[in-house]
Specification:
The complex is a heterodimer of chains A (about 180) and B (about 140). With about 180 residues, chain A is mainly α. Helices cover about 80% and strands about 0% of the residues of chain A. In chain A, helix 1 packs antiparallel against helix 2, helix 5 packs across helix 6 and helix 6 crosses helix 7. The radius of gyration of chain B is 18 Å and the shape is elongated. The model of chain B has no long low-confidence stretch (mean pLDDT about 85). The chains are: A mainly alpha (about 180), B mainly alpha (about 140). Chains A and B meet through helix 3, helix 6 and helix 7 of A and helix 2, helix 3 and helix 4 of B.
Chain lengths: ~180, ~140
């Protein structure tokens, strides 16, 4: 449990550094360190599926961000604190304190850590193996009991990637055509 | 974007097959061991991204082109959807229509393994396509 809290503190410090640092490259690297700590937390809590996904996705995202950052010329962000920003930071801290108070009040009514709210998950744990015959219960829930959810996620990924490809490709094509006509 | 040095190319040649085999293992045994279609697909995408980074844009895009990537993406998505639609033969959307088989063997769990394979193909093609879109097209635009 101490290791868990230590990793959580590491993640919070990494997140603050990622937001506050002036150098874009070190910001990207601290985001990567945060993802690594998150994957170790998943391993400690006994979720190897999530840990594998977290590590692998973090690696791919880090490679993409590094490629994009290294290609940019203006990697540093000039930023100075002014009077108005100090005021807005103070207001934000006050509201954060109010949020903490109400969240701690709400936390008492929540079920204990590791005890799910929904009764259906008890059914999954009890009957999941005998019904689906898949030894990995997480995959059985994702692709057998709740496959409709997974279909929705796959559709979201598909549409977003098609959209990204269309937008980015069109830009390149227009500039290429202009270059051609200029010649 | 040109390739990297000879050291990186040689190590990529040595390691790439192992990465792809491990990704296939994660996808195929997703219903028995931790992992699954998404994780294995991202690992496969990692292997192809390594290929692109080490050997440069031209060599890698001759092996995995843009059109092939969008085709594989669509094949994965349509495969998953068709598994869902064939479920109507058993009565409902997403019915597990295949025989369940014995647990803890490769052929078990009915449609779960085939869904994993479809999702793995889809996710790997997706991530490589997004990498190419974000990195390559922008570099082309700059030149």
């Amino acid at each position: 449990m101490i290791l868990l809290y230590g990793l959580l503190a590491f993640m919070i410090i990494g997140a603050i550094i990622a937001i506050e640092t002036k150098d874009l490259l070190s910001s990207v690297i601290s985001v990567g360190a945060m993802g690594l700590a998150l994957s170790i937390i998943f391993l400690i809590l006994g979720a190897p599926d999530l840990a594998i996904v977290q590590v692998v996705v973090e690696v791919v995202a880090l490679i993409m961000l590094l490629r994009l950052v290294v290609e940019r010329e203006d990697v540093t962000i000039a930023h100075r604190y002014r009077y108005g920003e100090v005021f807005s930071t103070a207001v934000g801290l006050v509201f954060f304190g109010i949020f903490i108070v109400f969240a701690s009040l709400a936390y008492r009514g929540m079920p204990e850590f590791g005890n799910p709210v929904f009764r259906v998950s008890e059914m999954y744990i009890r009957d999941g193996f005998s019904v689906s015959r898949a030894a990995n219960l997480v995959t059985a829930i994702l692709l057998d009991f709740r496959a409709y959810d997974t279909l929705g996620e796959a559709t979201v990924i598909f549409v977003s990637i098609v959209g990204a490809l269309v937008i980015l490709r069109k830009k390149g094509r227009i500039s290429d055509e202009r270059d051609d006509t200029d010649r | 974007m040109n390739g990297m040095t000879l050291i990186v190319k040689t190590i990529t040649r040595l390691v790439l097959g192992f990465i792809i085999v491990f990704a296939a293992n994660i996808v195929l045994y997703g219903h028995i061991t931790p992992g699954g279609g998404f994780a294995g697909g991202v690992m496969l995408a990692c292997a192809i991204i390594l290929l692109i980074l080490a050997f440069g844009k031209k060599t890698a895009l001759d092996i995995v082109g843009e059109k092939a990537l969008s085709a594989w993406d669509s094949i994965g998505a349509l495969g998953f959807l068709s598994i869902a639609l064939i479920g109507f033969s058993g009565g409902f959307f997403f019915t597990n229509f295949i025989m369940r088989g014995t647990p803890l063997r490769l052929i078990s769990g009915g449609t779960v393994m085939w869904s994993n394979i479809a999702i793995g193909i889809k996710v790997s093609a997706c991530l490589v396509a997004v990498f190419i879109a974000l990195v390559m097209f922008r570099l082309e635009h700059k030149r």
